[in-house]
Design a protein that fits this description.
globular, 6 strands, Nucleotidyltransferase, domain 5, 2 domains, 340 residues, alpha/beta, 15 helices
Length: 340
């Protein structure tokens, strides 16, 4: 299906009036589905060819249907109850729940193709460092692997990504015996139970290259960083973070800024990362309190990450910070080697 067909199908699913204005149709589609029609069409093309759908077709579990696909996006955007969705769509509650959850799970499984880091990229880049004659060929090969964006525009800087954690509301978790609220789930941002996720974005392109979670909201950001992402960095590589990550040699914070101009450049990178975090909150299921089972929260987050990353690839990027002074230039490699 193309973009125009998705816009028309979305209008029918959302039961909106037909408009002659293309801008009005695009605005209405995005307000109901959470993403532009071209992003939805790109996601649909990846979905029907994904390994998850092909494997479950054999088991008779998933039948890809663009209407059910838009049901899932509508549910993800509005964070409505299943009773409201059933009445809106004109189907039974069990039918709506079945197809919505199956398609949300299928979208979430696309994160391995769209978001995740590539270990192969790391070995190629490490080889390029020690063999300058192969650097050009290695970079040309990297551009062919479109599902990994970590090394796009790589100039062999010390920092390639910005890392930050973001919190989402969930219902209070209580101890089954004492019925008291479990404090490790409490978020200091909401004064309520929540979960946190770790997000890494490429400094050069603003593409989301890493997501990790969920964790209890009381878990510190530096603890989640040391859980897995720290071990995936190259020996001399660093990440750009906020002040909450102070104390780890792999993290460069505003405290490590050399001068005022460098500090403004670091602030610009971290500010753009906060803009990327805010885009997750445009989906109602992540902005409001999550009313479903906590074990299902990661499906909604991963589905949002896929849609946001596809929007970046289709031109809906945040503002550019390449014009700022690079937070960690190539000249720092010698200093990092001496410290190591």
């Amino acid at each position: 299906m193309d973009v125009i067909e998705f816009e028309e199908l979305g209008r029918v699913v959302a039961k909106c009036k037909l408009s002659r204005s293309a801008k009005v149709r695009a605005r209405r589609f995005r307000s109901h589905c959470g993403s532009p029609s071209d992003v939805v069409a790109s996601c649909w093309e990846l979905l029907i060819e994904s390994k998850f759908v092909k494997e479950n077709k054999i088991l008779g579990r998933v039948e890809t249907n663009p209407t059910h696909f838009l049901w899932a996006l509508l549910f993800h955007k509005t964070c409505a109850t299943m009773q409201w969705m059933a009445s809106k769509l004109g189907v039974d509650e069990k039918t709506a729940e079945k197809w919505i959850k199956l398609h949300l799970e299928a979208i979430a499984e696309l994160d391995s193709q769209v978001v995740r880091l590539s270990i192969l990229h790391a070995y190629i880049r490490l080889f390029a460092w020690f063999c300058s004659r192969c650097a050009r060929a290695a970079r040309e090969f990297l551009m062919q692997i479109v599902w990994s964006n970590r090394f796009d525009g790589d100039a062999q800087d010390l920092c390639l990504v910005t890392v930050d954690g973001t919190h989402f509301l969930i219902r209070n978790r209580r101890d089954p015996w004492t019925r008291k609220i479990v404090k490790r789930w409490c978020s200091h941002k909401f004064n309520h139970a929540g979960v946190s996720y770790e997000i890494a974005a490429c400094i050069k392109t603003d593409n989301i290259v890493w997501t990790h979670g969920p964790f209890p909201a009381a878990c510190h950001d530096i603890s989640t960083f040391r859980c897995r992402l720290r071990d995936m960095l190259l020996p001399m590589e660093r990440v750009l973070c906020d002040r909450g990550y102070r104390g780890d040699a792999k993290c460069l914070t505003p405290h490590n800024a050399r001068d005022a101009q460098h500090k403004r450049a670091v602030a610009a990178c971290r500010g753009r990362h906060e803009t990327a975090n805010r885009r997750f909150k445009t989906f109602g299921s992540l902005k409001q309190m999550f009313r479903h089972e906590p074990d299902e929260h990661h499906l909604f987050f991963r589905a949002a990450a896929v849609m946001i990353q596809l929007a970046h690839q289709n031109g809906c990027c945040c503002y550019d910070v390449v014009g700022c002074v690079d937070p960690a230039c190539e000249a720092e490699w010698d200093e990092g080697d001496e410290q190591a």
